[in-house]
From TrEMBL, chains A, B:
DNA-binding region: 29-48
Listed Gene3D superfamilies: Homeodomain-like, Tetracycline Repressor, domain 2
Name of the protein: TetR/AcrR family transcriptional regulator
Ranges for domain HTH tetR-type: 6-66
Keywords noted in UniProt: DNA-binding, Transcription, Transcription regulation
Tree of life domain: Bacteria
Xref: InterPro entries: DNA-bd_HTH_TetR-type_CS, Homeodomain-like_sf, HTH_TetR, Tet_transcr_reg_TetR-rel_C_sf, TetR_C
Length: 194, 194
DNA sequence: TTTATTTTATACCAATCGGTATATAATTTA
DNA sequence: TAAATTATATACCGATTGGTATAAAATAAA
């Protein structure tokens, strides 16, 4: 055979995620990516394809990790109310610098690319649907456990919680008064998880 | 004096709004703007300054018009419930092609520029605060008119409605199943305007 | 009409964009 | 060790980026 790769694809891809997450697609140049990863352009192109393919690989990786994180957050507490309180707490006051500074990579892509590229519309929509399914499952469990009444529409409320999380995430980008975020979170939780 | 301008600044600026609204800041080139407006670059630079100043002028124009439209929508119906139903209807099913295709120019800017440019963070935050104030006023009127109970927290609910509208607007960019949008809208209205 | 002033149009600038051809360095199989 | 194969590094490509110098065209006041 031949020479071995000198870099770890997973590690490099994570650095690509962080950069696209922070700056978006258009504002990130291939030069930015070479300096961030330490690789030269031919290595990046050989390993991932062109800029768009690289972005897509990064987004897929992010979505996978993000979904896992959301699921984990929802399983930590006994009640759905506590679970979603923890989830909104994570979204609005995470220690993770990327989460608070740059929001959600998938949401950023929904705004920047989904309206102009059907492939990214599909990719981001599927992630939202997946989150919605996670939320629904958690709410259905709460119905079984008698936390919520049996006529509670788990799916509709799950979708609304996703939309609320989405709105809060975008709102955070303008550095609003924390009381705004607090009040909104409290109303969402108390109104949607009665 | 001297020669007169051959173009109408307001008309040109509206075309600039439409282009930045559709494509965002980075993806819109000065060449795109000259072809869309019919002006040459020196004319654009003389009238509005550089690309960033032109974008800011466009966003200010949009925000002004958007705020007026939101206020008008909220005054058309007798009840707050009907008013916000009409507002969400406008956001999710407007005839206006720009509204449905490209969402909200201000929200797009919150995602693309606010995290990296404090000036746009301020500009977009102030618009959200203004909308929140409009919503609050409408809800307070509903309290006076006995539609809502006197212990209803108008401001907190207004902020939550803004966040919900924001989330729905971003969600729409992925072309989700209309039943998703319908369900979310209904839950938001029934939960936040009891 | 002359003069002063401003807008317009053309052409151009260095810098950067995404992407690649080429050649050298490295490593494995034979 | 020799041959084959692959990754790397350098250098480069045409196209486009935001922005401007220059000069012609047009219009006002004198």
């Amino acid at each position: 055979m031949a020479r071995k790769r000198e870099f770890d694809e997973e590690h490099v891809l994570q650095q690509v995620v962080n950069l696209f997450w922070q700056k978006g697609y258009e504002a990130t140049s291939m030069s930015d990516l070479t300096t961030a990863t330490g690789l030269q352009k031919p290595s990046l192109y050989a390993a991932f394809g062109d800029k768009q393919a690289l972005f897509e690989a990064a987004l897929r990786r992010y979505n996978h990790q993000h979904a896992q994180r959301m699921d984990r957050l929802l399983q930590q507490d006994k009640t759905a109310r506590q679970s979603f309180a923890r989830l909104f707490q994570y979204v609005t006051q995470s220690d993770d610098q990327h989460q608070t500074e740059y929001g959600c990579f998938c949401i950023n892509t929904m705004v920047e690319l989904a309206p102009h590229d059907e492939r990214f519309a599909v990719l981001t929509r599927e992630h939202q649907m997946y989150l919605s399914a996670l939320f629904t499952r958690r709410l259905e469990r709460a119905i079984v456990e008698k936390e919520l009444s049996s006529d509670y529409d788990a799916q509709a409320h799950a979708q609304t919680l996703v939309a609320g999380m989405l709105g809060l995430t975008v709102m955070l980008k303008t550095n609003p008064d924390p009381t705004f975020i607090h009040a909104t979170t409290n109303i969402l939780l108390s109104s949607l998880l009665p």
